[in-house]
Amino acid sequence: MKNIPKVIIAGIPNVGKSTLFNKLVKKRKAIVHRKAGMTRDFVKDIVKHEGRIFELYDTGGFFEEDGEIFSKVKESAIKLAEKSNLIILLFDSRRELLPIEKELYRILKKTGVKIIIVINKVDTENSEKIQEIETSFMEFREEMLTISAEHNHRLEELLEKILENIPEYYEKDEKEIPLKIAIVGKTNVGKSSILNKFLNEERAIVSSVPHTTRDILDEEIKYKGQKFILMDTAGIRKLNKLKDSKEKAAIIKAEKSIPRADVIIFVLDLSEEFTKQDMRIAALIKENMKPLVIALNKWDLIPDKKKGDKLIKEVDAKFHFIKFAPKVFVSAKTGKNILKLLDLSVNVYENYKRKIPTSELNRVFENINNKTPILTVDSNPIKIKYITQIKYGPPVFGLFASSAKKLMPSAELYLEKQFRAVFDFEGTPIKFVVRKK
C-alpha cells in the first residue's frame, strides 16, 4: 500500500495522543500511561472509515529535556511529519498553552503539511465554555476541533475532517496475508538495529541507552515477493526488578507480542555472557510453541571466526529446550546475514504448518518403536496401536493406545529426536500426546 495517505498525531507528552490513536484504530496498540514519555518510537496502524483507509501514526512526544533519546524522538517525529498528508496537532484543554507547544507548531508549520488543531479532554457540551477554550488557541489560525478521545466525543467529526483533507484511498481486497515476525530479546541486544537493517533506514530509534523501545513497532516490508510484518518489541526483563512502571508496561506488551506473532526471531548478544533474562525469554517462546529463528548478533565483534562451531554448541547446550531452532550469525552493524533471517523465517513457518500423512507416520514410527520401548511416567512400556498427526501449527502427534498415560520426558525427547531425523521440522516445536483408542 505504497500510496496510502499518512496522518500523524503530534503533540507534547500527556495530551492524549496514544488514547486518540487507539480509539481511531479501534484497538489498544499504543501504550497508554499516566506518565509522560511512554511513546518514543512512532506506532502505526490502518484506520478504515466508510470504505476509505489511511495510515495513522502516533508519534513520540516532544520533550524539553536534552539527551540522545529525546533529540532522536523529536527528529524522528519531524521526519515523519514531512512525509505525511495531514498533521493532527493535539493539545490538552485542561492546561494553559505552553511555550514548547508554540515552538512545536512553528516547527511543524515549516513542513508545509496541512495541520488541524485538535483540542482534547473537552467533555462539556456548553457552547460558551467550548468557545472560551477555542479562543485560547486562535493564534494558530488553523482548522480547529474540540474532542474527548477518552469518552469518544466528536471522534466521528474528526474522522470526517481527516478524510476531507487527505487523498482518497479505498480499501482493496488483498489475498496475501503477511507473515508476522516478532523480534524479541533482552534489552540492548540489537533488536531495533536489526529492524532498521531490514528496512534500510532508521525506522526504530536506536540508542546506546537501554530500554529505548517501549511500544511494539509494526512495519510491513516485501522480500522475494513475500510480505512480512516486523514487530520490534521492548526488551523483556523480570518485572519484579523494575521500578519504572512505564518499562513494566512495555515488557508486558512485548510478552504479548510472542503469541501474536507467526514466527519469532530471538536475538542473542555474542559479545557478552548469556543471562537468566535470555533463558526466561527462550522459555516464553517454547511455552507458546512458536516457530523460531535464533539471531546470534554482534558477530562483527568476534575476532576469531573459527569459533563459530564452538559458539553454536554453547548456545545449544545453554538453550537445549529450543535446540530445534536454526541459528545464524548476524551483524546488525554491517548487515551480515540479516536477510537470511527472513529466508529462515519462511522455512520454519512452513515446517510449523507441515502435515505428515498417517501412513508415512506409522511406517516411521514402527521402525522407531522396534528400536526402543516407549515408556510412560510410571516407567512401564506402552503399546501404541497407531499414530496420527492431530494438529499442525505446531505439529502435534497423537499416539493411540489402550490407556492415555503421559509419556516419560526422556521418551518424548527420544521420539522428538527420531522424528526430526526423518522429517524436516527445523525451527518448529513438536509435541506428542497419548490418546485412548
Q: What can you tell me about this protein's structure?
A:
With 437 residues, this protein is an alpha/beta fold. It folds into 3 domains: 6-164, Rossmann fold (3-Layer(aba) Sandwich), CATH 3.40.50.300; 179-351, 3-Layer(aba) Sandwich (Rossmann fold), CATH 3.40.50.300; 358-436, K homology (KH) domain (GMP Synthetase, Chain A, domain 3, 2-Layer Sandwich), CATH 3.30.300.20. 33% of the residues lie in helices and 21% in strands. The strands form 3 sheets. Strands 2-3-1-4-5-6 form a 6-stranded mixed beta sheet, with helices on both faces. A 6-stranded mixed beta sheet has the order 8-9-7-10-11-12, sandwiched between helices. The chain is elongated, with a radius of gyration of 26 Å. The two termini are 51 Å apart. The model is unreliable at 31-40 and 203-215 (pLDDT under 50).
Summarize the structure.
It contains 12 helices and 15 strands.
Top keywords for this entry?
437 residues; alpha/beta; Rossmann fold; single chain; six-stranded mixed beta sheet; GMP Synthetase, Chain A, domain 3; 3 domains
